[in-house]
Amino acid sequence: MSDVEPTTAPTTAISTSAPVAMPTQSSARPKRGELTLAAPRGGKPPQHLADLDPAERKAAVEALGHKGFRAKQLSTHYFERLVESPQEMSDLPKAIRDDLVAKLLPQLLTPVRTLAADNGKTVKSVYRLHDGALVESVLMRYPKRVTICISSQVGCGMNCPFCATGQEGLTRNMSTAEIVEQVVQAARLLRRGEVAGGAEGAPLRVGNVVFMGMGEALANYGAAVGAIRRITDPAPDGLGMSARGITVSTVGLVPAMDKLAAEGIPLTLALSLHAPDDKLRNELVPINTRWSVDEAIDAAYRYFQVTGRRVSIEYALIRGMNDQGWRADLLGTKLNTRGRGWVHVNPIPLNPTPGSRWTASDPGVEREFVRRLRALGVPTTVRDTRGSDIDGACGQLAAATA
Ligand code: SAH
After folding, report:
1. Considering the entire predicted model, what is its pTM?
2. Which long-range contacts (CB under 8 A, 24 or more apart) does 66-69 make?
3. CA 349–ligand 1 middle distance (angstroms)
4. Catalytic residues
């Protein structure tokens, strides 16, 4: 996966000049350039504590005929103590514990497979959801921090041709609790000592969450923002993580980027640009036919203006496609036209995906691309790509076919 910085997306139906698929139950492979903006409706996942805010939890507990304060106890077990088994909830009398656990802490994500890479410091988890759908998340341990890359949809409707998830189409949106549960399971994995690495005294907690797994988080706006609230709400109401450690990556869903800016959450937005010109970006990121390069960059700049958070521009370097020096210059110039100090570019060496002949740029070409951006005064860091040998790197998550 990745090292990161943020992004955004829309909630309402969007008209687009690209062909739009009608929602279907199956995730038929999309045609070239075809966008799926509204998720097919499937059976809803069971309701879970993490879908609810503290007031709703109290109401839900009372509706089940229990005392309202039980909600706080459940929240403490789930978010603060990361309890794995109901037996550990000894402050809940056995008779009511089973009922509360069954109704408010159902198992949403069943681990199917865990794959390690980078000497055990990168762990990809494949989970089965209640309806059999598969999703993936990737935990990356660095000397001084731990990052988890999570999914927000089963599949993705954005159809970027270099991304394995995009080739699978969109099956359905994930619920808030399904999104949060990936972070909770990762935190437990770490606590059980199942992730190698980290210097003595290195953090045992997940500090960074990046919405860069399967899906376009801003196309599942309500659930994604709900998950962000659960992740950042102070314990025991939520996981108590800093919003500054969260990055949301988007293809450039402009209305949702503006909406996210207005939420007042100091998270990082990352924009998947991949080309500075509309002709190429229409091909690489089909949503560009709806919101152009300039519109997407303007929205990223507005995000910076509203939040004061430096935005990240993602740029997968694809050999012979988008890695020319003139494109680096054009990108740098377009960013500088808006202002200085508001943005950071994150080139990503392309990770191979099945059926694609595209490959990463030559190292010399990558260096030159970075050099030109820096020469224009644009901070640029090549993303450290983790987990490519377990298909866990950026753009390789495609659990539906795993
Ligand atoms: N839907 C979100 C999250 C996608 S994954 C978005 O598009 O931003 C995070 C990043 O990985 C995105 O910038 C995405 O374009 C990039 N990516 C996808 N496939 C890739 C690949 N094969 N190699 C490198 N980066 C890739």
Report:
1. 0.92
2. 66/96, 66/99, 66/100
3. 11
4. 136, 394
